[in-house]
Amino acid sequence: MKKQVDTTDAESPPPLWKVRMPFWHRVDCFIRLWLLKSLAAIYFYCRRLIRQPPRRAQPTFVRRYPARPKLITHIFFPPNHRAGDLLPLYLNIHGGGFAVGNAQVDDRFCAAWAVRTGMLVVSLDYRRVPRHPFPTATYDLVAQIQDVLADESLPIDPDRITIGGFSAGGNLALSVSQLPPLHGRVKAAIVYYPIVDFGHPPPVKLDSRPYTDGPRDNIGMMAWALGWGYVCVGQNRRDPLLSPWYANPADLPPRIYMIAAQWDMLRLEAQKMIHRLAGLHDKEDQEAPFETPAYKWTLARGCTHGFTHGQGGSAGDRVYRKKVCEDIYSQAHEWLRKGALV
Q1: Which residues does the UniProt record annotate as the domain Alpha/beta hydrolase fold-3 (predicted)?
Q2: pLDDT digits (tens, 9 = 90+) for 41-77
């Protein structure tokens, strides 16, 4: 018998409209957001100059698709691919608070994922805030994915399509999967520390962290600015494409692996969402990992938001994060294997 999913908190919620914030609050958000974008641009530029990625971490080739010719797609073939063989597809969406980054940010992950799983990995880009607020990124991605799936030069197995993303990319992975062009075609999603609910303001999320005495990650001070840039005044903050928490479970991918960080302010919403989807909302210990035929949950202990891409901290911190990531990536690969998606 199919397990009934509790949708009490997400079924037909009343709209929650984004209201205009006070003038000086908007000025503060504007300054913070553009400062973040400027510093990120300088950081990524200097990083490319100082530390060129090794050949093994570079895409097989890059491509621009007709639907969004200004956006560059990075494509990674597994090294053991034989001509004529169809490959399972992994669609990767980078993070960056909907404001910074591009497909290149995830090159190391994507190259390693192609080697690990034998999947064809396609890393996508999207236009960013504040010039391009919601739902621009969602429709940028849907348009490009349609072009990717129609690309006859790519040996894609249409029955083995997985989507995944980090942070904002995790949100977008769950967003695009709901739309008719992709709904039913995406068989699984792997989402890392996503934001899934824009219905609650940043202070509420910070105050509700289960570990308020733990280290605060870097998104806390930027959350207002990122939300200001991404969500326009008058937008329903409970729109399922914006906040996948409110999506009908039938509209989401049939299999979802949710990963969150212990000290992340976004951890609780991801944790509650995956337990609700799995019908485990009454489970006493929701920090503990679980796996059902359709859903899987892992809490990365001792980690903050962005731990998969973190560069800072002590040598010991970096070694620990690398170990945590290796364990999670190994679990994700095995989870896809169990679902016959690799």
Answers
A1: 91-279
A2: 999 889 888 877 888 899 999 999 999 999 999 999 9
